[in-house]
Amino acid sequence: MVNSISFRRGDLVQLNSGGQRMMVDEIEDEAGSVLVCKWYEGHERHVRRFYVDALRHVQMNAAGG
Description:
Layout: E1 12-15, E2 18-27, E3 34-41, E4 44-51, E5 55-57
C-alpha cells in the first residue's frame, strides 16, 4: 500500500488512536514507510518505530502544547 501522506524529520505527529505528541526523528527506510519517533514524559525520553499508516500530523497550539 502506498501512503500519500509524507512525513519529514522534525514533524509533530500522533498515533491515529491518540496519545502523546511525538517528533519524527528519523525516516528509517527509502520508501518512508517506517518512522522513528521520540517524545518525553517528564524527564524520561522515549524512542519507538511506527508505520506511517498509524500516524497523523498534528499542529502545535499557541500555548505550546
